[in-house]
UniProtKB/TrEMBL annotation:
SUPFAM superfamilies: Pectin lyase-like. It holds the Pfam family Glyco_hydro_28. One of its GO terms (molecular function) is polygalacturonase activity. It comes from the Eukaryota. This is Pectin lyase-like protein. The keyword Hydrolase applies. Residues 1-16 form the signal peptide.
Length: 354
């Protein structure tokens, strides 16, 4: 399986760089919601993060009152078998980038052994409501050229904002992850490449997967996307182009994935970027394939939302082998003259019911 392949790559990296045996740091829990377990976690990462393992045993709960810094992790195994619970302290968290800072991290595995690991975002203690996710901390933030990181066999719950935000990084894999309830955005890809999701059950309010400009090779396989709520613009896979100048999204592949309820399965939207109200913005989507897709009473298979002064160019985009039910039909033509919407549907078997 894929995961074992990654493990062997990891071991190869570990044995190439480390002469010493894998260190194991077992993190103690203070077991007190008013105390922060993160200083001990960050100390364990410093001690064992270079090719070793940081272990959170089953049956223990850790209180997360400040960000966990995974940057010391080099081929490390961050094994969460217990529960990591984020504190109810919105005044603190609202100014933080993320709970898990995965900055410049290489060949890391963040996982549990047997899917027992739970990360409870606790909505950062914020009364549950919709927020602009740009100003909300992320649960995980991958950036600064993180390279080959696997997140697997974990449950996440009570996430406000984006669960996994990936930028300026490559080779990020999210496998066997279950969202127990809705995040605002499940996986948010921004100027990143090779982001793979496999066997992920995504639940979100705004988008299961949002792909921002200059991202490529994003894949979703054998997964599920559930959206509840009443937003007209909620999306399964959203191409979100701001179009300040020239922007592109390339090589997207979604296969054997199920989409359910209040969503547009695929959305392409452009927004005018600052200073480009003169028709100079160009937004390109090139080479996207959605194959063997199952719909369960979705809103629409696809939706275009075109800003007037941005030239949208969708090409080589194929919908193949879709089945199931949708409330509304899909419009394949662009709304704006001058935009190019070149998508094809093949083996299309959707039943429309209102
Ligand atoms: C991340 O990059 C910023 C600059 O882009 C730098 O200041 C910071 O130290 C980097 N962090 C790590 C952990 O590499
Ligand atoms: C990542 O860390 C390495 C040192 O381990 C450093 O040379 C490099 O500049 C860092 N990259 C970024 C983007 O922070
Ligand atoms: C990505 O990295 C480039 C340079 O390496 C930097 O200019 C840009 O601000 C970074 N983007 C984000 C979102 O951090
Ligand atoms: C998919 O992930 C779930 C955990 O969310 C796990 O229990 C299940 O075994 C995985 N299925 C496959 C086929 O790997
Ligand atoms: C995207 O890439 C193009 C070049 O391919 C560059 O001109 C543009 O500034 C980039 N935009 C962003 C938001 O990174
Ligand atoms: C299209 O994207 C797929 C990955 O989804 C890639 O394997 C293929 O090479 C791409 N084709 C082109 C023409 O870029
Ligand atoms: C649209 O994008 C494709 C792929 O990048 C490119 O070959 C084509 O010239 C573009 N068309 C227009 C009208 O910009
Ligand atoms: C289309 O889907 C319906 C059920 O949704 C099924 O009964 C029918 O056989 C399918 N047709 C084709 C050509 O696959």
């Amino acid at each position: 399986m894929r995961i074992s392949i990654l493990y062997s790559t990891l071991l190869a990296v570990a044995s190439a760089t480390g002469i010493r045996k894998r260190d194991i740091c077992i993190v103690d829990s203070l077991d007190d919601a008013s105390k922060d377990d993160v200083p001990a976690i960050n100390a364990a990462l410093k001690e064992c993060g270079d090719t070793g393992r940081v272990l959170f045993p089953l049956g223990k709960t850790y209180n997360i009152r400040s960000p966990i810094d995974l940057s010391p992790c080099r081929a490390c195994d961050f094994q969460i078998d217990g529960v990591l619970r984020v504190s109810s302290d919105w005044e603190y968290w609202k100014n933080q980038e993320a709970v898990f800072l995965v900055h410049n991290t290489t060949a890391a595995v963040i996982r549990s052994d047997g899917s027992t690991g739970l990360i409870d975002g606790n909505y950062y203690g914020f009364a549950r409501m919709q927020l602009d996710q740009l100003s909300t901390p992320k649960l995980f933030s991958f950036k600064n050229e993180s390279y080959v990181v696997l997140v697997s066999s974990l449950t996440v719950q009570n996430v406000l904002g984006s669960a996994f935000y990936v930028t300026n990084s490559t080779g990020i894999r999210i496998y066997d992850v279950n969202f127990a309830n809705n995040a605002a955005v499940g996986v948010d890809v921004d100027q990143a490449k090779h982001v793979y999701m496999y066997n992920v059950t995504l639940r979100a309010e705004n988008a299961c997967v949002r792909i921002r400009p200059n991202s490529s090779n994003v894949q979703v396989e054998q997964s599920e996307c559930h959206i509840a709520g009443n937003r007209n613009d909620a999306s399964g896979v959203e191409f979100y182009l701001l179009s300040s100048g020239y922007e592109w999204i390339r090589n997207i592949f979604v296969r054997q994935t199920k989409f359910a309820r209040q969503l547009n399965v695929v959305s392409v939207l452009t927004r005018e970027g600052n200073g480009h109200r003169d028709g100079q913005g160009v937004a390109e989507v090139f080479n996207a394939t959605f194959r063997d897709i199952q719909l369960d009473q979705v809103k629409r298979p696809a939706r275009l939302d075109e800003a007037p002064n941005v030239q949208m160019n969708v090409s080589r985009t194929v919908f193949q082998g879709w089945s199931g039910t949708s409330l509304q039909k899909t419009q394949f033509e662009c709304n704006n003259a001058g935009d190019m919407c070149n998508w094809e549907a093949d083996a299309w078997n959707i039943t429309y019911r209102s």
